[in-house]
Structures are given as structure tokens and as C-alpha cells.
Amino acid sequence: xxxxxxxxxxxxxxxxxxxxxxxxxxxxxxxxxxxxxxxxxxxxxxxxxxxxxxxxxxxxxxxxxxxxxxxxxxxxxxxxxxxxxxxxxxxxxxxxxxxxxxxxxxxxxxxxxxxxxxxxxxxxxxxxxxxxxxxxxxxxxxxxxxxxxxxxxxxxxxxxxxxxxxxxxxxxxxxxxxxxxxxxxxxxxxxxxxxxxxxxxxxxxxxxxxxxxxxxxxxxxxxxxxxxxxxxxxxxxxxxxxxxxxxxxxxxxxxx
Length: 256
Description:
By secondary structure, the protein is α+β, with helices and mostly antiparallel strands. Helix content is 21%, strand content 34%. The protein has helices spanning 29-38, 93-99, 111-134, 136-145, 203-206; strands spanning 51-54, 59-70, 76-83, 88-91, 155-169, 174-186, 192-200, 215-224, 245-255. It is globular. The protein starts with 28 loop residues before the first helix and ends with a strand.
């Protein structure tokens, strides 16, 4: 049963949490679709462009402009949404996903609960920082072993296909297909040897019919994001080595 909230722009009663400084934007439509599916915000063949932002007295249409990254391994995201009046606000992707449910209105019975949406973002950031503090010594040891100064812009890579695997997606609560790359090098004036990295085995990549052992070159953006371990995966799709870096939206791919 749909909730009986008026479908209006109600800016005066909306609590905004604007981003503090710069945030990540989408490289192109494919990157947008990859992230929205990763957050579990769209399961249809054509990825949604608009979403409902709901409060106790009203609901408003919003679009996703980008996202922030945080956590010890930058594995967590906060979504940046834009309202129809141009205002920006931060929201946890899991909470935005809850808002898309027709039954969501039953869960927001008071203004106090509405204000808790702001604390969800802050609590998520704090909870992600606590384990990092507890395990500070072990993290420092790993960082001393290999600490890379990663480029923020899109760059050119060379790499080879190591294997195909599965990775657990908390938002969709299922495994995603991934490609594990080895001998990954950022091809620039001063090359950066990354070693292992992973990326989503998207429909675009599947068209290339990749095979383990093949050497590739492509463009993309690299971030420090550890590969989440798969759940209940067949042995051949289990990745048994730590992979700490992710390549987002590889494009202009060529087989060497």
C-alpha cells in the first residue's frame, strides 16, 4: 500500500545536510549505473534516474549527483542527492534505499525520527573509524609494506587478467561478479606498480570475452578499496588473496 504523503516540493520543512567540500562525481553513464547498482538502489534493466526522499509530512524527487568516500580503506560511501530546487544533501545509500519502499512512511512517525537521518551519516562514519583505531598497529604495518600515492584523475593502465571471482555486495545482499587483475601498472612518466586490483565484471567488459593470462591496456580511475569477500561462492570463484585497490569504470580497453 502506497504511503499518503503529498508529492510536493516542501523545501521549508526539509533538513539539508550539504557536503563539506569536494565529492566524487560520475565519469559517465556506465559509472553511474555501476555505483547505483552497487548501492542496491536499482535492480531494473534500465537504471533509475530519480528517487524519492521522504520525510514525515512530504516526499520529494531527487537525483544523485555524486558520492563521498570514507573509512580506513575508503570502502564506504555517502550519497550526494540534489533536490529539484538545486539544494544538495548527504544521505547514506542504505537509508535512501529504505525510502524507496512503499511502507517507509510507517517508519517515520515523528519529527524526531526524521532528524535521525542526519545522525545515520555521522554514526556510519564514526563506526567505520572505530575499527581502524583498534587495529591501527596492524594497518600501519600493511601501509609500511606498500603505500601508494594514487592519482585522483583518470589515467592509463596496463595489466593482465588473473582470474574471475565473486565479491559480496552488502546493499544488494548478494555476490557480484568481479575481475581480478595482476601486474597492474599506472602508465605515466613515473609509472606506479600497483600489483593486484579488481573491477566489476560489467556488461561492457563481458563483451571483450576476457581470458585469464591476457594482457590489457585501458583507461580508468583507481581507488583504495579492498575487495569484499564473497559468501557461499564456488571454489573456482573464491579470491584467496587480499586485493586492496579497485579500478572504476575501465574504458578504451585493448588486448595486447
